[in-house]
Amino acid sequence: MIDLLDVATTTITAAGTPYCLPDQASNALATAKFWTQLVAIALAVVAVIMIGIGMFFSSRRGDGGEMLKGLGWWIGGVVLIAGAAQMVAVFITPPTNCI
After folding, report:
1. Cα-Cα end-to-end distance for the chain
2. pLDDT higher for 13 or 50?
């Protein structure tokens, strides 16, 4: 009876542990996540530089407030990309406690 109970408990605990990805797949996920973040940061920097140049030329014409709308869209985009990156990181992070 005790042996049967011992087998049942070890099966339940073994089923709850995740299976680890191979090292190559884990490294590939980390590399893809790194490059995605790097490209997003680079695009955000280029976009804010373009908005700054646009604000410079708009202020000379007297309609500098119009470019503030672009700055608002930039802030919204950065928040959206940062939030999406964190949500994706939850799903593609490989488990650390392997079988």
Report:
1. 27
2. 50
